[in-house]
Every structure is written in C-alpha cells, then in structure tokens.
Amino acid sequence: MAAHSPSADPNAISDDVFTVPAGVTEVVPILDFGSQYVQLIARRVRDAGVYSVLVGPNVTLEQLKKLNPTGIILSGGPSSVHDDNAPKPDPRLFDLGVPVLGICYGMQVATQLLGGNVAGAQEREYGRAQIDINENTDGLFKGLPDQTSVWMSHGDQVENLGPDFIATATTPTCPYAGVRHKTKPFHGVQFHPEVTHTPHGGDILNNFLFDICGCNGQWTMADFMASESTRIKAQVGDDHVILGLSGGVDSSVVAAMLAKSIGKQLTCIFVDNGLLRKGERAFVETTFRDHFDLDLRVIDAEKAFLDDLAGVTDPQKKRTLIGHRFITVFKETADQIKSEFAQGKKGKSTQIKYLAQGTLYPDVIESGQGYAGTAANIKLHHNVGGLPEQLGFDLIEPLRNLFKDEVRKLGEVLGLPHAMVWRHPFPGPGLAVRVLGEVNKAQLELVRDADEILLEEIVSSGQYEKTAQVFAVLLPVKAVGVMGDGRTHEQVIAIRAVESQDFMTADWARIPYDVLATISNRIINEVRGVNRVCYDISSKPPATIEWE
Ligand code: XMP
Description:
By secondary structure, the protein is α/β, with parallel strands linked by helices.
C-alpha cells in the first residue's frame, strides 16, 4: 500500500492534539503507522459521530491517558514487524482496559507483541477477498453475513496466533483475517474496513465503536468547528492572518471559519483577475460582507492580467503568466496591509504572521506528506507554487484533515449559502483556460455570457447536483451559419459537462437532449458572435476535463 511516513516522534505533533476539546466525551485516537488510508479511518470514526485524533506510533502511555480514550485504533502501514525500525506501540496500551482495534499492520504488530507470530510475505495479497466469518453474533462482525468480501492489501500476515487469540474470520490464503484476544480487549482485522471496497467495513467499524467501546456517537461538525475555533484562537493569539479568497468552496469555508474565530484579525484578499465567471465578484463580496465580520479587500487587477495575456496562445504559458501575476498582486496587497499595520491602523493585532490556505486532506496525500509533514503544500496556486515561502508567512490550514464532503458539511454549519457550499470547482487560471487561443476582453465576454446561460439551464433542469463540473469553452475557430437572410461566420461554443468522483477520471454527463436543445438555442440567440454549440462527449482519460 502506498504510504506516508508515520510520525515517529509524537512530540512533532503539536501538544494540543492531546487536549480534548471542551464538551467532547468520547475520543478514539488512531496510532498512525503510515497508512495512506489513516485519514479515511479518522473520517469514518468522525462520520459515526465520535471525535478522533491521529497520534504518532510512539505516543506515550501518559499522552494516551490524557486523552481518556474510549477506544484506540492501530492503523495499517507499509512496514514489516521484522524491520529494524518497525514502529511499535507501547505494549502497555493493551492493559489500559480500553478496547483496541488493529487494522492490517496494526493487527500484526499487536499480535506479535501479545505472543503471536507474523510471517514475512511469501506473496503480497492485494485486492478483493472473500472472508468466512466465524463469530457474527457478537463482537466486531456482529450482524454480518457468514461470508462477505473485504479489501486486502498486505505482504506479511499472522502465521501463528499463539495461545491467547481466537480467529474470528478466515480466507483460504489468510487463516487469521480477523482475530480477537481471549482476555484483553483487542480485536484485529488483516483487511481494510475503512475503504469502500469492503462493503461491510462501516458496520465493522461501527461495531467496534458502539458495541465494543460503548460510544454514543454525539460528535458533529459543529463540534469540530467549536474545537478548531479554540485551537485557531490559541495559535493566532494577537497576530493577524491573511487569506487568498477565490470564491471556491475550500477558501470560502476557511474564510468563514476564521472570520467566526478571529473576526477582524483576518484579512481576505480577493483578486479580480478579469478571468472570473459572470457575477462571481459580486457573489463573493455580498456573501462575505453581508454574513461575516471580516476585512475583505477586493483587488481589481483585470488590466494587469489581460496585458500579460495579450497575444499569448500557449496554454502552459498562460498558466505561468497568470500564476506569476497572482503572486505579484497578492504580495503587493500583503505589503500594503503590512504597511497599514506599521502605521498602527489595525487595532490590537501586532503583525501579519499567518497565511491561511484551504488545503484538504487529499491535497496533503497527493503531495506525499503525512499529517505531521513539514513541507507546505501549495494549494493556492498550484500552477506556480511557492507563495507562502515568497511571502514569509507561517501557514494555517484548518481543513487539512478533512475530505471535500466534510468541508461542505462544515460550510453549511458555518451558514455559507447553499450555492457556494455545493458549487462545482473552478480552475485557478479561470476562464483563460476556457478561451482557447488568445485571451482578451471580447473573447472573455463571449464565454462568460455562454457559461452563464449554460449554468442557468443546468441548475433549473436539476442537473447541477448530478454533475461534477459543467462549463462553456470558446473555440478559436469560425464556422458558417445562416441567420435571417444572411450567412454568418461566427465562433463555436463547446459545452463540457462531466460526472466524476475525484476529477482524476471523468465521464461525460448524459444531459437530457431537451435540456441541451434549450441551452443551444439560448446561447445562439443570446450570445452575439456564436452560431454553433457542440457537446463534448469525451471521457477522461484520454481527454482532460478542461480544454485549455
Ligand atoms: P483536468 O483538466 O486536468 O482537470 O482534467 C481536473 C480538475 O482540475 C481543475 N483544473 C485546475 N484547477 N488550476 C486549478 O486550480 C489549474 O490550472 C487547473 N487545471 C485544471 C479542473 O477544472 C478540474 O476540476
């Protein structure tokens, strides 16, 4: 299994991990042995309404006790228990009287520590497997069928359980697919209950949390907000934070979160680069000015961006120019705010110390870092990167442990408008990647007007929520048409509508013909300069979502 480095030094994790937020009564810490799915485990626990934190494998017994855990989970990981530096938990954690669930490597290391024996890999087992369940009236597999499929991903496996364990599930090649200790509250699974490829994985984790640990599952996203808010206030102190607000879900949720936590100690910078969708700037301004108490700076930089782009047709060059200009504008604005500070205009905040970013957990994983990693992931403008380093700020990334749909839930808790919380993604370089060929004001107007009509129809026909991304692309070619008595020679709009889970792969959306017909009629009638509309029926791969 692909992995990140486990946090070998628990002290590398800030100490507030071990401070349970006020009001939280049930905590299930996860010892992170380096599995790339560790956050998925945390997320399943959170979904079940139980507060969870990731801790390093060398977490001390005192630190664990401070959390007063209701249960403990040992994650999977890439190591072999036979490796010299294999991460191992303190064996006394099995005597805390708290139920422990070991997953994959977590089960192997626990059985090894408790008298079993783990064999080195003869061959790796990766993929779906059928397990036979020996105990389903009680325990981890309570209520499950006698047979079910699970997702395996391991090299080593337990060879000999020793006298103190019982096998609770088996496969033809893995005799100990599920185990429990006879006297200690330890349960283990060799497979991964946290991934969707294990259809009863959720039931298994719920059995652990509710039946075995006795959790009630009262924790919610509102509680997450409350505890993050306390953490952010403590971290920021009297300092000031700036945030590049794009109007996308992630930066908007961060803005709302920070506004509610530190109010005017946050300044949001929204750069109008002239490449935005119709009404975008007004939407962001009204949302944040009307609903939140924050300092919002809207920077009108259209001219600078369009001057840079004049005559440029190469898509990569466009991205680079846009990225560099963004950094310049952002930096100038940050300097301006700094000079206001220097003149004492900002009340009690003493300096701008932090840059906030809407980095999500999948971004952290894609950039190959664990949660305790140090290298900053550059979400703000992934086309260029380097903004935090260039500006010299520390980072605040309050969404770093969350998945996209959790961020949306949080957005709703924060009172952001539904349309903002559920909006489709929009690329950093904006409409510049949707005007093929040269980008100029006139071409931008055409694509903007076509896009507005498209989205109106997609929303009103109930297709917006069924699709992952929908937009118009302006092609740099002219086609012949006929309007009234005359021939026309005008441009072509391509419509792109895709369904996708993760945007790595996508299929074209089967938008009903009558909706497409209305879209086409309206664009051709209402957008002067366009006489044809095409529907893109390419999947990704081999096509991409954007045309560029
Ligand atoms: P592609 O076109 O690569 O797009 O299939 C996948 C997803 O990424 C978005 N995208 C970008 N986002 N800057 C961004 O912030 C970019 O340069 C960029 N290019 C593509 C795209 O809209 C889709 O959601």
